[in-house]
Design brief:
This protein is α/β, with parallel strands linked by helices. Helix content is about 30%, strand content about 15%. The strands form seven sheets. A seven-stranded mixed beta sheet has the order 12-24-25-26-22-23-13, covered by helices on one side. It is flat and about 110 Å long.
Length: about 750
């Protein structure tokens, strides 16, 4: 096209502009228009070309207004050498004092930028030459001092900032980790379109009605970002959904928008009320508040009306092929594809009236999807009452038909979904456009998966049915209810999603990365307590007389039934103050009794000392944490089998004794409790991979994934704790109160150990 105007020989500058125009223009229908301007030498610079490309993207409808285009691209604008000289003189005059002081160390790019801003279409090289000339005239040639490198200014170290406590606020803006997620999602970070500029998205289909529909859309939304989280209410949310929740709610939050929670309730056979409740509960637990809670079923009437319109427009038909016949990507063409519109309208009405059995008729759309699948189903027959609409309908819409139209009804600006839905993008755009309704933009991102687990609903149901796990909230699973029960704080899950980042590629992560996020949060949130998992009785034979009697704990307001008390302190009990957070004693203390009988971990005593062993042994005293005493073994008491069942020791005040090699935790007048210790549920990283686990995921279960310690002891300071309250049991790990706790027997789940197990990393 250019040669028809310029002849066979093209100069390099024109060739470069032509190449850039062809490479950067996404919609080829305007290519000839741009080439004409380049060939006629009306677009001469890359700056003009960039402006031209932006204009074309912003004006998708034909014909383009040539006069407006030329004004936007500087066509015909002539910048004279005199204008450039005057602009540079003005800029240098403005910075004259700094130039004389700093000479050639001054940032000359600043002069270039300011001169360029005064003359938008001036040639950059000409401006640079003029700046160099006038600076030389002002300062003269460079001296040796000018040639020396400018010393780098020392960076001022920021004052240490006190570590903030993680906190959830409305719509999910949490501590610094999650704010970094918001930074990933804010503004131009993701290169998403602005509300109302859907047509600038690559692949977006523009129709003659597009601009009018977008204008109506902006009038309704006010230019606000709108997203939605659309789960199916047929199962419990898992860790992968946490990324989707963070992405959808987070993108709206980061850009001053709103996010809908919309249940995709189009399959009444699998939906239960408990799933609706659990989904919303988990969204809010993660710290997000939906702008509105909606259901696909809210729009069943409108969807049905649109289905009739789709048939009238010749874009849908009633088909009688069986489900088995149309499965896969190469099914035989439907013999009913070209049936008359009136016939399909009557048959679709018969479907609605229940005159066809399940599987005897479907409504199919006339399109080929990106993955090659032909004519996806829009409606199918199901004689199952709906939990919200009852027996009103016996036909229900599919995801392919429902999703984009619900997005359109709610005026969603960014329909964010995982990568496997990319094949449905063409049907998404096609359906909205063929019905002449507002068309949102679908954007895809990579799924988040974890190793050593399964998250599919079908597989979790099999685990429950076989007794491998108790239920959907078994703490060995990675459903969100299971993670909450195990004790993972919502901030830790959000922080984990922030660390994974917003990626297009699928992310498969190790569980220990999630556990590290939990440790970071729990270290700041979980008050300390002392507990003993395998108790060994210790009697202090020279226990000192008490000064203060410890008040009785429990009773009204304790969080457990009235009448439950910690064991009454003996007359010989002392009172010990233990900091809730030893690194920050300003956050308070709690009291624990200390008397002549205490309990320590069995593993904290050995009769024979190995090299490197620093805890209690005959001839090797230890300190008792927080008590201010050092104990030394005097007598070891064993049962008939030779097992150590009790130690008799003496105590010495810490300031009177030699500093011991170690300090151990202990309990006195404790509460009995049950502790559940969890390990990975599966032995292999990918239990669903036949090459790794030929026998199937049920053959890969870890027999040691749960160990129950039924006779553990914990200090009485935790008596008032409620289910899901979290503690750090000193030297043992982070633990959470399980809902199975009852009067007289608390139950704790170990969330994570204090340090990462090197074998799991």
């Amino acid at each position: 096209q250019a040669r028809s105007t310029l002849g066979p020989a093209l100069d390099k500058a024109t060739g470069t502009l032509l190449y850039n125009a062809a490479a950067r223009l996404k919609d080829p229908k305007h290519l000839g228009f741009l080439v004409g301007y380049i060939a006629r030498r009306e677009i001469l610079t890359d700056l003009q070309l960039s402006a031209a490309l932006e204009y074309v993207r912003s004006h998708p409808l034909e014909p383009l207004d040539a006069a407006d285009f030329e004004r936007a691209c500087g066509v015909g604008v002539c910048v004279t050498p005199e204008q450039i000289e005057e602009a540079v003189e003005a800029v240098i005059s403005k910075h004259r004092a700094e130039l004389l002081a700093e000479r050639y160390h001054f940032n000359m790019g600043l002069l270039m930028g300011e001169a360029r801003s005064r003359l938008q279409w001036a040639d950059g090289k000409t401006i640079k030459n003029e700046v160099d000339l006038q600076v030389l005239h002002l300062l003269g040639p460079k001296t040796e001092a000018d040639l020396e490198k400018k010393p780098k200014a020392a960076k001022a170290r920021p004052a240490p900032v006190e570590k903030q406590k993680a906190a959830v606020v409305e719509n999910g803006e949490v501590d610094t980790e999650t704010r970094s997620l918001l930074e990933q999602l804010r503004g131009e970070a993701l290169k998403f379109h602005k509300p109302g500029e859907n047509y600038k998205t690559e692949g977006y289909v523009v129709t003659p009605n597009t601009m009018a529909l977008l204008k109506q859309h902006l009038a309704i939304t006010g230019g606000q970002v709108r997203t939605r989280f659309p789960p199916e209410p047929n199962g419990i949310l898992h860790i992968g959904h946490a990324k989707a929740i963070n992405f959808n709610f987070g993108y709206a939050k980061a850009n001053g928008g709103v996010c809908f929670l919309r249940y995709d309730d189009t399959n009444p056979e699998k939906e239960e009320e408990k799933y609706f409740t659990a989904i919303r509960e988990m969204v809010e637990w993660l710290g997000y508040q939906p702008y509105a809670v909606t259901h696909a079923s809210d729009y069943f009437d409108q969807l049905y009306t649109w289905a009739l319109e789709l048939i009238r427009r010749g874009q849908a038909y009633v088909c009688h092929q069986k489900v088995e016949e149309i499965k896969g990507h190469n099914p035989p063409p439907s013999p009913w594809r070209d049936r008359p519109v009136e016939e399909s309208l009557l048959l679709f009405e018969d479907m609605r009236k229940g005159k066809f059995g399940e599987g005897e008729a479907t409504l199919r759309m006339k399109l080929v999807m990106e993955d090659g699948k032909m004519d996806p189903v829009a409606y199918r027959v199901k004689f199952t009452p709906h939990h919200r609409t009852g027996d009103k309908w016996c036909i229900y819409p599919t995801y392919d038909y429902t999703h984009c139209l619900c997005d359109s009804i709610e005026h969603i600006t960014h329909s964010l979904c995982t990568k496997e839905f990319q094949a449905r993008r063409s049907s998404y755009f096609w359906l909205c456009n063929v019905l002449d309704v507002y068309c949102p933009v679908q954007w895809e991102y990579g799924r988040l998966n974890l190793l050593y687990t399964v998250v599919s609903k079908r597989k979790i149901i099999r685990l429950v049915e076989t007794g491998a796990v108790r239920d959907w909230d078994d703490p060995r699973l990675f459903t969100l209810t299971a993670l909450r029960r195990r004790g993972f704080p919502p901030e830790a899950i959000n922080n984990f999603c922030a660390r994974v980042g917003v990626t297009v590629a699928q992310a498969t992560m190790e569980p220990h990365l999630l556990e590290a996020c939990a440790r970071d949060v729990l270290n700041e949130q979980a008050p300390r307590a002392m507990a003993v998992l395998e108790p060994l009785k210790v009697t202090i034979t020279n226990f000192p007389a008490p000064k203060v009697r410890l008040p009785q704990a429990g009773g009204v307001g304790s969080g457990f039934p009235e009448g439950q008390h910690s064991p009454p302190p003996s007359p010989q009990a002392l009172e010990v103050l233990v900091p809730n957070f030893p690194a920050d004693e300003s956050r308070g203390f709690h009291k624990v009794p200390f008397q002549a009988t205490i309990y320590i971990e069995e593993t904290d005593f050995r009769e024979e000392v190995d090299k490197g062993y620093k805890r209690l042994a005959p001839g090797q005293p230890v300190g008792l944490r927080h008590a201010g005493y050092v104990i030394a073994v005097q007598n070891v008491i064993k049962d008939a089998s030779g097992r150590v069942i009790e130690l008799e020791v003496t105590c010495t005040k810490s300031d009177m004794a030699e500093k011991p090699k170690a300090f151990i935790h202990w309990v006195s007048e404790p509460l009995a409790c049950e502790v559940r210790l969890y390990e990975r549920l599966f032995l292999h990283k990918n239990p669903e991979d036949p090459s790794e686990v030929p026998g199937g995921f049920l053959s890969d279960l870890n027999p040691d994934s749960l160990r129950v310690v039924r006779n553990a002891l914990v200090d009485s300071s935790v008596l008032s704790a409620r289910p899901f309250d979290k503690f750090q049991f000193e030297r043992l790990g982070y633990f959470s109160v399980d809902p199975d706790s009852e009067a007289g027997k608390m139950v704790f789940n170990r969330t994570v150990t204090l340090k990462e197990d090197p074998g799991k990393a």
